[in-house]
Amino acid sequence: MEPRMDLMANPLGAKIAKRIYNVALAITQSSLPRSVQDLVMLRASQINGCGFCVDYHTKDAAAAGESAVRLHLVAAWRESTVFTEAERAALALAEEGTRIADAHSGVSDGTWAKAREHYDDDQLAALVSLIAMINANNRLNVIVRKPGGSYQPGAFAALAD
């Protein structure tokens, strides 16, 4: 698969990517646990079929110490015993927030209530923003057909201000 365009090679694309990365950096620096962030980004990327983002978030999560078992089971988290209740609440919110078009009501009150049980306002702000940002990134990469497989952990650190 050949990419349609290299957004990072385009001056405007690179400028936009830098801004997106800085939003992601603010989320990373929040009190939302890194493991939850990694799991949510991986799950949304799986749902959206973004090979590049699945590659990116799997490798970054592994480099941060996430176990291979948990990474392999993210796609089947509902049928797995390796995730905490807080992680399950975040994964459910990520799925409903990613599949908005599939559910006429968007994110259900029950899913929101479960997330609210486990996360404070700052963490919820980070989680909601994370779900929105990973979906935007997935769409950018799917539209330009950026393939997965070549990402090296930490490759985007140079984008930070």
TrEMBL record:
Q: Which InterPro entries match?
A: AhpD-like, AhpD_core, CMD-like
Q: What is this protein called?
A: Carboxymuconolactone decarboxylase family protein
PANTHER family recorded = 4-CARBOXYMUCONOLACTONE DECARBOXYLASE FAMILY PROTEIN (AFU_ORTHOLOGUE AFUA_6G11590), BLL7811 PROTEIN
Please list the residue ranges annotated as the Carboxymuconolactone decarboxylase-like domain: 19-96
Query: Entry's SUPFAM superfamilies?
Result: AhpD-like (SSF69118)
NCBIfam families xrefs: ahpD_dom
Cleavable signal peptide:
none
- Domain of life (superkingdom): Bacteria
Q: Which organism is it from?
A: Actinomadura luzonensis
